[in-house]
What we know:
The chain is of the alpha/beta class. Helix content is 35%, strand content 22%. The chain has a single domain (2-192), classed as Spore Coat Polysaccharide Biosynthesis Protein SpsA, Chain A (Alpha-Beta Complex), CATH 3.90.550.
Amino acid sequence: MTGLILSGGESSRMGTDKGLLLTGEKTWVEHISEILGTAKIPVYISVNKSNHAAYLKIFQPQSLIIDNDSIPSKGPLLGILSAHIHFPGEDLFVLPCDLQSMNSSLIGKLISHYQKHPDAEIVHFTLADEPEPLCAIYTSASLDSILSRIRTGEIKRFSLKYILSQYKTYGIPLSKEESGAFKNYNSPEDLGK
């Protein structure tokens, strides 16, 4: 298994790249990288071409995966599939950089359920019966299929919730206490709350 942190997106509501925001002395992406690193798996950062140079100031080039323009997709799915092309045999533990309240306990819980449910193509958490596709483990087989179906035009919607509806998934309900780890920070107003 390989870890993938989704960063370097457009962050249009925040007005700046969320991965490069600071909490104390660390960028958000460094903070999430440390949390995902508690799983003892290699961790890579998904970025786009426009932010690649900024991330090179923090991370080694081999740690960064640039969006692959040959994939007819966009958004988080493009980052995930770009990583899949780099590591075609690896299942990917996907985590966005803006889940700043994520913790190692939930990382371990997701991996535990993934190991207990080898028949699932994607393992994810659910919050109020809705899937959380950006903290999930995508098997290499599911990613092979997604990539193939996008390239043939069979899949035309790039929403990850839609993608999850197309595959055999295993959802792990979050308790009220655990749900706080899924607070998204999408705008400057969110940071003040």
